[in-house]
Amino acid sequence: MNAFFQFIARHRLFASILFLMIFPFFMPYEALAINILIFGLFAMGFNLLFGYMGLLSFGHAAFLGIGSYLTGISIVHYSLPWGTAILIGVIGAAIGGLIMGFLAIRTRGIYFSMVTLALGQIVYYIFYKAESFTGGENGLRGVKVETFSILGIPVDFLNPLTKYYIILFFVSIALWLISRILNSPLGAVMEAIRENEKRAAACGFDVTKTKLLVFVLSAAICGLAGSLRALHLSIVPIDSLHYLQSGQAVMMSILGGMGTFFGPFIGAAVMLYLEDIVTTFTKHWMAVIGLVFMLFVLFFPKGIWGTILSKLHINQDV
Amino acid sequence: MTGLSLELLCMQLLTGIALGSIYALLALGLCLIFGMLNVVNFAHGAFFMVGAFLGVYFLGITGNFWFSLILTPLVTGGLGLITERFLVRPLYGRGLDYPLLLTFGLSYVLIEAMRVTFGIEGLPSITPEGLGGTVDVGIGTFPKYRLFLIAATAFIIFAVWLFIQKTRYGLIIKAGAADQEIVKVLGVDIAKVWLLVFGMGCAIAGLSGILASPTRSVNPEMGIPILAESFVVTVVGGMGSPAGAVVAGLLVGIVYSMTSLFFPDLAELSIFVLMAMVLLIRPQGLFGKAGAMG
Amino acid sequence: MRNMNQTPILEARNVSKSFGKFKALNDVSTRFMPGTITAIIGPNGAGKSTFFNILSGAFPPSSGQILFNGKDITGIPQHEFARIGISKSFQITNVFKQLSVHENVRVAAQMETSRYNFLSNTKNYQKPIELADELLRRVNLERLRNKITGDLAHGQQRALEIAMALACNPSLLLLDEPTAGMSPEETMVMMDLIHTLASERTVILVEHKMKLIMGLCKRIIVLHHGEFLAEGTPEEIQNNAEVRRVYLGQG
Lengths: 318, 294, 251
Prior knowledge:
The structure holds three protein chains of three kinds.
Chain A: H1 2-10, H2 12-22, H3 30-50, H4 61-76, H5 82-105, H6 109-129, H7 131-134, E1 140-141, E2 148-150, E3 153-155, H8 160-183, H9 185-195, H10 197-202, H11 207-233, E4 235-236, H12 243-256, H13 263-281, H14 285-299, H15 303-311
Antiparallel strand pairs in A: 1-4, 2-3
Chain B: H1 6-37, H2 44-62, H3 65-88, H4 97-118, E1 134-136, E2 141-143, H5 144-166, H6 168-178, H7 180-185, H8 190-212, H9 223-237, H10 242-262, H11 267-281
Antiparallel strand pairs in B: 1-2
Chain C: E1 10-19, E2 22-32, E3 37-41, H1 48-56, E4 63-68, E5 71-72, H2 78-84, E6 86-89, H3 101-113, H4 126-138, H5 154-166, E7 172-176, H6 184-198, E8 202-206, H7 210-216, E9 219-224, E10 227-232, H8 234-239, H9 241-246
Parallel strand pairs in C: 3-8, 3-9, 6-7, 7-8
Antiparallel strand pairs in C: 1-2, 1-4, 4-5, 9-10
Helix pairs in contact in C: 3-4, 3-5, 4-5
């Protein structure tokens, strides 16, 4: 058993993607698997900033939303091909990250959480009011992706399983990027700053610039999750941008294990699967998840995956 | 811009002050908790909402507004005491984010609790007898309740100020906010102070809720935007500055009110834009200390 | 004073610092010559820490200037200091507790090569790894390279901090009470290390242990109540009546 986990630890990217490839067969229905995949990516992008840099942002829904809306608007209003639409969504989210990051990074600690929440709300209200583009309160509708062909083979995007694997393709690229970042010199500096900001600065690292760079990367990844979500749902709900959506990323990271590689994904899976079950026999899901979250904050701060890894004495980088 | 008179502007200003008074009170409660415990109470909006519900409920069954006005903050304050003692305190020393996260989870539970207790539609708000109707303020007629609101919050803020400045407990709170180690060394049971301050903060939030309840719809989600707005006020005023909280609260209320006169669609957005500008020009807020927070 | 025509490596000109109403430093001026080892001493509350923090870049002075090799560096951000060649160790050990000993120094060593590269693999970056190995050897910690830093003994953590401070190849090394909390044996080891380091670069240290300072430093600066009181060789300071008066006891 231990050897198995050691293998995963050394090849985390490979193991993760392999797991994700067989994941839909564990889920009761594909749409849930797709949802978990998308929000797993959202949580992992968020975790880059939270778990690895120690910056708790409550505004990351803005990037999920910007990705969703820009992709949706590109398709609905400008009839752009979906590949281009995704690119626009990601770049837009990255730019949003640059602006929000620039304003928020100059604040410290818990102040940062407040500021990002409030800045995220600006994005919410802007998209809410820009009704002609976004559909306002009702959200954006009609984000349809037609069947397309890859290398001459026609692909039916509406087939749930096919949709899952297409989305997985993009998620895998993002996972590769995240793993790369964490293994890179930047990753080492990130960890140093999280451990001891003063010492990192004394060593010569520009803490502010590093935080901003990670903020932008994190925003781009969340933007990708948003773009994929728009394609999946064919609509973009306005609530994607609300701070409660940001809170969901926070919860998923804590539940799964912040500061671990795959933890946030596990958190997303557990949370969405639990929601699926619980909502069938009660409408008080909000209380349930609130209680569960408080329990984790109090007693299991390492999260599910983090606790498993530490019990098996495996490095938390998995 | 026809029909725009000085009178109209003044009336709108007065409305802004009434709205701002609630913001000021809310932000003050948040500031107390942050100043003393270094905790941002993400359940602050939820306590506001609970206060509104309890206020309407007590008023409904007793018919006595003053009684409700006293009972409501006691209940929300009591809830705050329980929260601090059993939920937040175990998390000190674990890292600044944990109490924040916990209160965020708590807000979910509080919202659902109110849904279960009072229904998802909420309660119809009640304007207390004797405070309804309008009053001639010289330049026009103004809702009597809003005047009461301004006076009541001013009184409460003054009372809190007196408490902090003049009483022994207040001195400890001030000292504790500045240096927790010194207070401990002086033999003061710092845990009791934390308990008291958190309770006070939640009591103030609840009080804001009942005071605001006649002016808005009372439903379980009403606290959600309030949290964001409290943060805007705190950023504008400066983290940890009670004076900043009050001044910024009034300012934000006025900005909202004046914007809704000229650009009604952009009123909500305007206060966030104000905050963004403050972040750009003076990140520590109007009354904050440079370098401390931004 | 030798070489009066040489540019001082570090100079403080009329440095004052106030925290609110409290004036921690008042009009302190002094120069540090290259290749010297100087100690800053003074009774508690003299302003040593504040002066150290200003010289090492933790915060800027309220007024006055700091010059490095003749260039005005007043107010530059902390991270610039390491890049121009001024490195420091903290009074309370400031290392990356969750990382291994080797990782600590490797991160510090990375400063020269890359800070924002997020696509290469750190395993392939030989230079910081080799530099870290070498530095650990200098401070005698190479056999502990894989240990988690939080598990090290106090003296070893302080030695690690010195290794990290050396990673950017500083021409000026600032040490804040390097032997604080150390046993006599650890103190001797540290003092030997500092002596070796001082032969290659300029060292300024804040210290309390007079015996060590007397043996190690050619020049001592005395602060008192935030003001410059006296400076000179150890003998001169020992015989200075003013210093004897304010500095009660620690022989």
